[in-house]
Structure formats: structure tokens, C-alpha cells
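Subject: complex prediction, re-run

Hi both,

The earlier run crashed halfway through, so I resubmitted it with identical inputs.
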Amino acid sequence: MSTENLSLGNIYQAKKRITPYIRRTPLVESQDLKTITDANVHLKLENLQVTGSFKIRGASNKISNLSAEDKERGVIAVSSGNHGRAVSYIASLVGVNSTICVAKTVPDNKCQAIRALGAELVIVGENADEAMVYADKLQMERGMTMVHPFDDLEIIAGQGTIGLELIEDFPEIDTVIVPLSGGGLMSGVAFSVKSIMPSVHIVGVSMERGPAMVASLKAGRVVNIIEEPTLANALAGGLNKDNKYTLPMVKQYVDETVLVSEKEIAEALWFCLNKHHIVVEGGAVVGVAALLSKKVNRLGKNIAIVLSGSNIPMVVLKKIINERELAK
Amino acid sequence: MSTENLSLGNIYQAKKRITPYIRRTPLVESQDLKTITDANVHLKLENLQVTGSFKIRGASNKISNLSAEDKERGVIAVSSGNHGRAVSYIASLVGVNSTICVAKTVPDNKCQAIRALGAELVIVGENADEAMVYADKLQMERGMTMVHPFDDLEIIAGQGTIGLELIEDFPEIDTVIVPLSGGGLMSGVAFSVKSIMPSVHIVGVSMERGPAMVASLKAGRVVNIIEEPTLANALAGGLNKDNKYTLPMVKQYVDETVLVSEKEIAEALWFCLNKHHIVVEGGAVVGVAALLSKKVNRLGKNIAIVLSGSNIPMVVLKKIINERELAK
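This time it finished cleanly. Structure:
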């Protein structure tokens, strides 16, 4: 059972450990969302986080805490996105070799971004699953530490530090809305918030196109879903089949889940850009999409929404802008 | 002489006074600018400030400090932009009536934005000068307090709080780059930084199209310039002809001025969007433009650039994006 494995003390330990590496991101009020919802709505700007997403919190908690021997042998991860960037960045910073495995289908600019942060990039396999098989093999051969993107208690504890910051900055909080994918961010934030304030209503939001965690919650076990193209690509991908932590934690701590459509995600991206002059990625804006589409069943009067990252391709942003009628 | 009228103590008083109303904006490192300049470059994100620009600092210092009688009679300002928004917002918040005068030429969406924040909007005159004449008349008639956009010691002290935050967050600082227009922001930041660390090199940046302060510094007196359309429209407009504070303060405290072209401003807007996923307005990005164009004569190793606001029209942002070749 998950609560036996993780304590609020672990979140505070993570906070202390990662403080030198992360930004204390601001929590800003949204007047526009206040008008729409008749509630105080605050946005947690993890889009301003180091490497452009919250992923650095978990990665730095995991990697900075390795033993000297493990540091010597290096770390490995599979991710072409925010997790890959975060691992590559923090490993370089603390002097640990990192290897990031990505499939051959990953675009060149993403590969370059990860390499630029310091990792050895291994391009292998026709898809993410094949890259994972190779990474497992490499990990065994070289004795490296696998840095899982979500199903790891140190990763979860790192992401959970966001929950502490929310409560510190906004102690009246009664509702927290968080993007939901593999469940590392969701488990960490829900655990830390509920441990301190059990009455806070926790909402997880996924996209309609391939919501692996929501499908697994429904089935009561890990189920495979078909990956579809989505604006919220950072939330795409399945759970690991031997999931240990995030499925039970999300089941225990999350009160409500919401699914949003591609159109609702696009509207929310435009809302953040036009009303707040904030650039976020599709996967980061699903909480705003849930609010704008009025899909959250139970809304309190003091709401925090986690905007989890900013790494949107400029072509996508261009499309979002060009689809609008603009005032001169 | 300016230093006789303003003390570092006034800046600290302003800091205390405005803390309930403003955001302590983050100072974030730019890896990309570090690579380009071979120096530590930090960006002060006043684009994330309440009402979208630094202007709220001066306005809240001025308005919250009025006597009960002056509060009763209300405040007046002339501005269709960031200053107008800030005055309208803070006046509503502290329960003071505000009147904002704008010329008939001001677009409807800007008028709506100011009204939405709570001010009475008076649309009068064919241009800003005529609106100003009317505002002066109204001020006399109604006994309201004029909130000048820059040439006022309480406004300057409010903007100067940015200097304190820069030094608190980045005590190694040796170079500060600030947008330069009427000189309220520049005077405040330069005064507070130089008062604490006299050796810091202070750079003011204006646009080539209508740099009133730079022309006035050269002439040794206030000179009129012809207003031209510019991406940095927040920096447009002349000095007041009876300038008391900002011209002498900029003369005394600013070590270097730089002018940037429209093309350089557009490049800097794109740089902030593409590399940092940050939306700023043209007038706010001139410091980055000065760095990217290598026009600053003396650059230290620990540089802070003030990004002063985010209120860019979406049509302008659209143009900036559509002019680029984007990777898929």
C-alpha cells in the first residue's frame, strides 16, 4: 500500500534536496478565470520551471540522492520529452553521466535539445517500447540507475513538493487541478496536499485521446490504450504494466477525473496566451481546459491549477494563433 | 538636484507599501543568452507583474500613500496603455475613484481593458496632448491628484523597488539593462542599484524610432521628438517639458544608452518566445535586443535585464511568428 511507502517527511526531504536545482515558481491569480468561475483561481507556473517543466523536481530528487557508487555508474532514462530534458540537465549539473534512449521516430530537434543538455543520446528501436527494451538491456549491462518517468517514490516525492508550495502560497486552497498522465505529478501533489489538508478536492485531468490512467482506474488494473495524436502529447503513453505506486495512489487520493477534447485544449492554450500572455504546452493546460469547459463536478472557492510545462513546438503555437480572428 | 529629493530609504518605504499589491516577480537565468554573451544573464520577469507591467509598482506607491482627503477626491491620469491599466486597477483595489483620459484615436479594446479594471474613462481630444490639456482642466476642477506616468518621486521610488529585488536575488550583479522611455523605471532602478552598489554598470535602451530621453540627454534639455510607429510603442512619447526629476536622474545614474532598430526588437521578441516561451511586448524586450545585437559597449559577467511588460497585441505576436521559418 502506497501510504506505507511514502511519508510527508519524504516530501520535505525532497524539498530540501532539490531547492538548489529548481525554481520556486510563482502562483499567480487569474482575474479572467475568477470572472468565469466566481472563485479565486490561481495558476502554478511550472511552465517557468528549469528545463521548462515540473519534471526537474522528481529527476533532481532522484539523481542528487544516489550513492557515490551509483553516481559513478550513471543514469539512464527513456524519454524524448520533458523527462529526458530534466534527467539530462540535472545529471550534467551534478556530474553524473546520463544516457537517454529514444526511438528512431523522434524528431531531430528534440534529440538535439536533449544532447545540448549533456546526455548521451541513443537512438534505437522503431517505437518507445522498443527503446525501452534496449534501455533495460543497457541498464543491466552497465549497472546504471533507471530513472523512471513516474512510477518511483523519489520521483513522486520530488513532484510532491509542488503541493507544499501550493499550500504555503495559498493556504485557503480547497480545490487542486492537476494534469494526469502516468501519475507521478498527480500522486505527488495529491499525496502532499491531502496529507496536510485532507478536505481539499483533488481533480486529475487527461485528454480524451488516450487517457491511460483514467482507463486503468476504471478497470481497476493497468490497461493498454491506443496512442493517438494529441495536443497534450506530454500526457500520452501508457502506464508501466508492473505499476507499483501511481495507480494505487491516484486511486486513493484523487477525488475526480475529467477528460478534455482537442478543441477544449486548443481553446485553453489560446486563453492562456491571449488573456495571460503565458505560453504553455497542450499537456500543461488541461486543467484550464477543464475549468473553461465547465467539466469539473465539484469546484470550491479557492482553486489552484498546475500549469506543468511550456515546451510547445512553435508550429503548434502558430496554428493556435492563426486559427483566431484577432482585433486590430 | 535629484539625490537631495530621493533616498534609499524612500525605496524601502515604497517596497513595504506596495508589497500587498504587487508580485515579487522571478529573476530567471537565460542559458541561451549565456551561450551568446559568455556571461551570466538573468531576466527580471516584470511581464508577470499584476496588470502585465512594472507600472503597478509606482502607481500603487503613489495612490496607496495619498491622504484620506486626496483619496476621497480621486486620481486622474492620461494613458491608454500600461500606466492607465495600473492606475485603474490599484485605485479600484484601494477604493479610490480614478479617471483615465485618452484621445479619440485610442482603439476600443484598450479603452475596454481600462474600464474593466474600474476607472471612469474619458475619451477626449484628437491626440494625447489634447487629452492631457483636458485632464489638467478636470484635475483642477475636481481637485483630483494627477498620477504622472514617470516624473514623480513616488512613482520613481515604486519602480525603484525592482532594483532592490535585483540585488537581493543576484548580489553578484555588475550590469543592469533597462528599457528607457520617460525615465521613471530607469531612474528608479538606476538610483536604487547605484545607491547600494555604485560600481554596477547601468544601461538604458530605447528604440531608434523616437527616443525622446536619449535626444534630450544629448541636447542637455527636454527636446521634442516626432512620434513614429514602433514595436516598442510602450516606450513612445515625449518627456514633459517641465521635467523635474527623470532627465537629471537618468543623466546622473545611467552609464550608457543604446538604440535598437525595429528589426532587432522583432528578433528579440522571437528569441524570448522561441527560446524561453515568454511573451513580452516590444517595449519590454529592448534590453534583450541590445544584447543580441551586441550593441552594449561595456558588458560585465553578471547581467540582469528587465523585461518590463507583456501587453503585446495578439496581431503583433501573430506577425512575429508568421514571419519565421519553423521546424516541424
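The longest strand of chain B covers residues 201-207.

- K.
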